[in-house]
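Hey L., structure's done. Input below.
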Amino acid sequence: MKYFVTIAGRTVEVEVDGDQVTVNGRARTAVLTTVPGMPLRQLLVDGRPLGLAVERAGQGRWGLTFVGDRWETEVVDER
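Output:
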């Protein structure tokens, strides 16, 4: 599935095929897991863990917090 993700005014193309993710042509292995009952996610990118707080902000809109910095994002699929 292909998505267009806008963060801080910059749009990138993200293609997801299982645990293989390609961002603007650069392939990575990525796995996203949730912490039950909390807005926390653990994202493993090429085996490196990243902790994120994720809040839904409307259809296709998300607030992401990573290491104290917050970004408003918009995700649109190719359909």
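The chain has a mean pLDDT of 94. The chain has one domain: 2-77.

-- N.
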